């Protein structure tokens, strides 16, 4: 079942939890459908968060999607060549980064898109399925999510990119840990537990073994 606007009416952290296990669906221009289960998210809390593009209330043409209604796609370029895909929450300027997917449909197409991005296409390696979307930029390449085609798209009001509830919803254990790659924002915000992933899922971009060990000691 496709998620509706009411499903996205959540705070950033609530959405970071809620999106795990949901299915991201991408319809390409040739009507090929790609689906992947969200297995890792990362929250950026808006004006108070030194790692957020909207820290201090900063609002620009680049980050405008972070201020749009909950459930809006925010796609931005990083390192001048890769894209990252986020979803706005109900909190002003706050959004959830989708870090990793578990491919479940259109796997051959995902691999084709990944290889097209590689410089040496002839000798491009054979990807493991778990390597196809195990990172924010990898999943954007694999689903052809770019700033020019999907930024500011309402995920409830279009037929190119949307989210669904899984057909077979299964229980999973949630790992909570620090975000990745934001050390320059200072120790306080770099260490805040704002990354979430599905325990023991092989498609996660990077395990936090310390957080897993602690989680195991109190829950397993």
From TrEMBL:
Transmembrane segments: none annotated. GO terms for biological process: base-excision repair. It comes from the Eukaryota. InterPro entries: Formyl_transferase-like_C_sf (IPR011034), MPG (IPR003180), MPG_sf (IPR036995). It is an enzyme of class 3 (hydrolase). Its EC number is 3.2.2.21. The keyword Hydrolase applies. GO terms for molecular function: alkylbase DNA N-glycosylase activity; DNA binding. Signal peptide: none annotated. Keywords: DNA damage, DNA repair, Hydrolase. HAMAP family: 3MGH. Hydrolysis of the deoxyribose N-glycosidic bond to excise 3-methyladenine, and 7-methylguanine from the damaged DNA polymer formed by alkylation lesions. Binds MBD1. Binds SSBP1. This is DNA-3-methyladenine glycosylase.
């Amino acid at each position: 079942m496709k998620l509706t606007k009411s499903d996205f009416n959540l705070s950033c952290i609530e959405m970071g939890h809620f999106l795990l296990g949901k299915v991201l669906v991408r319809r390409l221009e040739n009507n090929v459908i790609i689906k992947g289960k969200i297995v890792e998210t990362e929250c950026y809390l808006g004006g108070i968060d030194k790692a957020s593009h909207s820290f201090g209330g900063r609002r620009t043409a680049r980050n405008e999607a972070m201020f749009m209604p909950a459930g809006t796609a925010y796609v931005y370029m990083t390192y001048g060549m890769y894209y990252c895909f986020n979803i706005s929450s109900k909190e002003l300027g706050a959004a959830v980064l989708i870090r990793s997917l578990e491919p479940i449909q259109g796997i051959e197409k995902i691999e084709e898109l990944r290889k097209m991005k590689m410089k040496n296409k002839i000798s491009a390696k054979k990807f493991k399925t778990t390597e196809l979307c195990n990172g924010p930029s990898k999943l954007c390449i694999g689903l052809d999510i770019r700033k020019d085609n999907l930024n500011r798209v309402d995920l409830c009001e279009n037929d190119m990119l949307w989210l669904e509830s899984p057909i077979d919803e299964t229980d999973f254990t949630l790992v909570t840990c620090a975000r990745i790659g934001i050390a320059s924002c200072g120790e306080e915000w770099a260490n805040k537990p704002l990354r979430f992933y599905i325990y023991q899922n092989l498609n996660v971009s990077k395990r936090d073994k310390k957080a897993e060990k602690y989680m195991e000691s109190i829950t397993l």
